[in-house]
Amino acid sequence: MLDIEGIMLNGDVYLNGEKVGGTDYGYLGFEADITKRINYDGDNAVAVYASTRGNSRWYTGGGLFRDVHLIVKDSISVARHGVFITTPEISAENAKVNLQVEIEGFRGKSADMEISVKIFSPGGRLVGETKTIAPKRSKKQTDEVPLPVVNVADPQLWDCEHPNLYTAEISLSLDGKIIDNVTEKFGIRSIEFSKEYGFRLNGKKVFLKGVANHHDLGAVGAAAHEFAIERMFKKLKEFGYNHIRTSHNPYSESFLRLADKYGILITDELYDKWSNKDYWAGRVPWTDIVFRNIPEWIKRDRNHPSVIMWSLGNELQMREDLAGFPTGDWGVTTYRMLDILVKRYDPTRKTTVAMYPSRAGGISKNDLDFNTKILPPELATVTDIASFNYRWMNYSEYLKHAPDMIIYQSEATTNERLAPYFGMDREKMVGLAYWGAIEYWGESRGWPNKGWSFSYFDHALNPFPQAYLIKSAFNDESMVYIGIVDKASESMEWNEQTIGTLNISDHWNREEGKLYNVFTFTNADKVELLVNGKSFGIKKNDFKDVSKRNQILWQNIPYVEGKITAIARIDGKEVARHQLETTGKAVALRLEPENNNWVADGMDLQYIKVCAVDNKGRKVPTVTREVVFDVSGPARLIAVDNGDHKSNELFAGNKRQLHNGFAMAVLRSAQSAGKVKIKASVAGLKNVEMNLETK
Questions:
Q1: Residue 395 belongs to what H/E stretch?
Q2: Ranges for the Glycoside hydrolase family 2 catalytic domain (predicted)?
Q3: Contact 529, 556 (CB under 8 A)
Q4: Of 407, 438, 462, which one is at a domain's C-terminal end?
Q5: For residues 549-555, average pLDDT
Q6: Is residue 233 part of a domain?
Q7: Which pLDDT tens digit goes with each residue over 222-261?
Q8: Residue 281: pLDDT above 90?
Q9: d(CA 694, CA 675)
């Protein structure tokens, strides 16, 4: 079997000149049986046709952007995505584990075939077993076979802080011989939704604190490199995030495996609009393909404990012709049909649709009655979870008309900062996802921007100062952070929302004698601001105004070379401080590798940051010279970056301008282990080199 996880935007696969399979919606994969087409005595040629013709509002990438597998198995085997594991009953003493195994190739056969499962704890200890005999003389092409329930004593639950993963090993035995064996990771956890408490994980209230982004990964584009995904998860966890909405398509299988590993809660989304024309990235009409996409999607992703919701679409009530089948009810009938199909393959999770911020009847901001008819869209009142893009200030009014809605803010604007978070009823609602919290490619506001940049992190995952504002709300730890205003903030209209960004940075290398506006972001009661020990007063955190909470503005602070310090206090006691210091002239470079376990598998990445430093080793943020990288050994340089979303430089090659004193090299390991040397040089600065090793 050839297993192709995705071809962007769509494509076909040929073996020795003969078509063996393809995908009409490239975010989902397929399997091709090539048994009878292989030339077993000679060479074989696999050719892949990929087409990027189609509609997309964002950067999709192209070609083989996900993994390809060659699978060899018996003709009687576990079917594609054929294992389904659920944990319907959990207590501190015991967890019931239900298993279903779908088998293929056994149609009409009467032999005794045993299906057996062994369950291993996160530490590798055998904790449960179950078995059954496959149905004989079945008339089905594939058979979904339930096994007796397994009881796991003293279960180690999966949650955001302790993402414990069990392993199920499934075997098929015929005449005493094992003919197929597959393993599946899963988590023991429970999920519940209610209008009374929003969302509970393992019986405990959890508020989703997340991002909604597109799937690209900065300099490596849409290619699903596992380490690139992993470093994103680590950064988000560091800043208090626990959730990602996969806008607006299924992400890679490796993405979900890593979400399981890091305890990230996922809203798994299938589509953008429900349309055969506009916004549709498929090769055939949406109405022809949707019923093939849903089984592949659900069966592929249903064993991941990180997945807590299925989202079937995005922004449907903006136009009636984007809401699916032409039933004249804003997609209500379409949703009900799709919901039945989803629950055929997974009855354990709720479904939703992320709604465009319009009203019932498609009323938009340009309509005269927009501010008087504050009624929720028809579709949002029938979905399991009512998901709204923006409009947090209207949720209480929506609930007056549809009090049974369970509300999730599927997109929150970064421009409003903490208002969407503090403006929600966090005790009763599910959570929120900040749109474009990480810069992504496409949907820019015009050249020289290359993509979305109203964000909290640049595309290299460097946090902007306002990222710490969100951290002040998402984390319980007391903190304060300084951001200096560089220029006026930017804004524009998008989806009936005013979006934009603060143009601030976190350094104290400024223009002598000039006055600056300064933000301090804090979750403490009060902040005192000092420049070289001189106090500019103490200001209170305005906890009552959601638009100002945790952000204090200081105007006309004079720049003087030295130190600017913010001291945060609660009840008069210092709980945190942040300090920026004027640096000296740049004299050298510093390299910082990120991957401490670089594997020689031909796929693993190493990210190496480079920055200009002064004679005290402090980063100098004003250096903009070109850095040249030289790499030798069993690895190759696949991208260079500096986090500048407006840069016209290519990611290919070995040269990149320093941006804010920063650049980065991305290396990909070879399949042979060994020592790798990287050298970085900048004219006028002391060069630096580093020896690394792949294992």
A1: helix 395-401
A2: 198-350
A3: no
A4: 462
A5: 97
A6: no
A7: 999 999 999 999 999 999 999 999 999 999 999 999 999 9
A8: no
A9: 6
Kindly state whether residue 230 falls inside one of the protein's structural domains: no
Residue where one domain finishes, among candidates 530, 549, 580? 580
- Helix axis angle for 332-345 and 286-301, nearest 10°, is 30
CATH number of the domain within which 17 lies:
2.60.120.260
Whole-angstrom distance, CA of residue 406 vs CA of residue 385: 5
592 in the same domain as 495? no
More confident residue, 358 or 23: 23
User: How many domains does the structure of the chain reveal?
Assistant: 5
Structural domain contains residue 535: yes
- For residues 194 and 425, give the distance between their C-alpha atoms in angstroms, rounded to a whole number: 13
| CB count in 10 Å sphere of residue 530 | 16
Please give the residue that has the higher pLDDT: either 656 or 316. Answer: 656
Average pLDDT of the chain to the nearest whole number: 96
Q: 139 and 119 in one domain?
A: yes
Full domain range(s) for residue 168: 77-187
- Please say whether the dihedral angle defined by the alpha carbons of residues 493, 498, 499 and 500, taken in this order, is positive or negative: positive
Specify the amino acid at residue 485. Answer: V
Q: What is the pLDDT of residues 167-192, one digit of tens each?
A: 999 999 999 999 999 999 999 999 99
Q: Does residue 30 belong to any structural domain of this protein? A: yes
| Domain identity same for 353 and 289 | yes
CA distance 657 to 641: 8
pLDDT in tens, 564-577: 999 999 999 999 99
Same domain? 412 vs 520:
no
Return the closest-CA partner of residue 57 out of 630, 460, 440.
440
Tokens of 190: 């429970």
Residue 534 CA from chain centroid, whole number = 44
Is there a single domain that holds both residue 317 and residue 398?
yes
Cross-strand bridge partners of residue 330: none
Provide the total of helices (H) and of strands (E) in the chain, helices listed first: 7, 45
Distance between CA atoms of residues 179 and 168, nearest Å: 17
Q: In this structure, what is the dihedral angle of CA atoms 633, 634, 636, 642, given to the nearest 10 degrees?
A: -70
pLDDT in tens, 373-409: 999 999 999 999 999 999 999 999 999 999 999 999 9
Find the helix packing angle between 226-238 and 253-262, rounded to 10°: 40
CA distance 631 to 690: 10
- Say whether both 162 and 219 belong to one domain: no
DSSP string for residues in 405-447:
--EEEEEE-GGGTTHHHHTS-TTTS-EEEEETSB-EEB--SST
Q: What's the residue count for the chain?
A: 695
